[in-house]
Amino acid sequence: MKAIFIYNPESGSGRIRRNISYIKKKLESKYSLVDIYESKSKEDLIKKASMTSNYDALIFSGGDGTFNDIITGISKLEKKPVLGYLPSGTANDIGKNLNLSKNYKKALKIILNGNVTEHDVGLINDDHYFMYVVASGTFSSVSYRTKRETKKSLGKLAYLLDGLKDLFNPEIVDFKLKLEGHEGEYNAPLVLVLNSKSVGGIKFNYKGHRNDGYFDILIFKKGKGKNKGLVNIFSGFLSGIFQRKLKKRNVISLRANELTLEASDNITWCIDGEEGIKGTITIKNLHKYIQIYTPKN
Question: Would the pTM count as exceeding 0.90?
Fold first, then answer.
C-alpha cells in the first residue's frame, strides 16, 4: 500500500516539521511507500491533495483550515484515499470531534491500528466544502480575525482576547431559513450549522449528531435590552462546559439534510474557522462522503 504525508509547516509551532523522520518511519511500518510533502500555501495544499488518487492513504497534519483544504482537494477524485489526521492547530475542533489526540504519536497509533470510519461532509453552493461548522454572528469571526503570530504565542488565549471585542459590539444576523417543513425569518446574535459536537474548543453541542446524514442548526435568540442575546450565547457555552442540555429559552434547535440561508451580501459565513462566502447559501449533507482513520470506540 502507498501513502502520502502532507503537512502545514506553519501549524503547531513547527512541531510536526521537527519530527518528520519519526513520522515517516512509523508510517513505513504499515505502508510500502511513504511520500512526504510540505505545503507552501493554501492553494498548493489543495492542488497537491487533488493529485492523490494513486495513493491508498492521505495522511496530513494541520489545523481545521488544513482539514478543509484537504477535503476541497480530494472532492473531485473518483477514487478518494483514506484520510489520516494528525491535529496540530490551535483549536482543533475537527480533531476533538473525531476523538483524535493532539499528541502526534498517539494520533499516529490510530492510523496504524487501521480503524476506518465513514464521515459526512457539508457542501455549500455546490462548490465549497466543510467538515464541522458554518456560522455567522457574534464570535463567529474570531478564529480568522486573530493574527497567526498571536495564536502561535498565546494559543487559545489569543481567541479569548480577540473575542472580547464582540462583548462590546455584538453582531446581529438577519436571515431567512428554508428547509423541508420549515421556513422562518430570524434576527439572531449567532447561527450555527453543525456536523459536530465541539465548536471553539467547547462541546456545547455535546448531545449533537454526526454522520447520520443531517446537520444540527442552532439559532441563538436575540435577548431584550443591551446584551443583544449575549446571555443566551454564554448559556450555550456553559451548557457545553457542564454537559447540560441546551435550553429552549436560549436557542432554537432544528435538524435538516439540506437548507438555505437567505442573507444580504454584507453577511459573512465562517466555514470551518475560516472566512468564507457572503450572502445567501444553500447547504447539503454528503452522507458518508469520506473515509478516515479514527479510534475504535
Answer: no
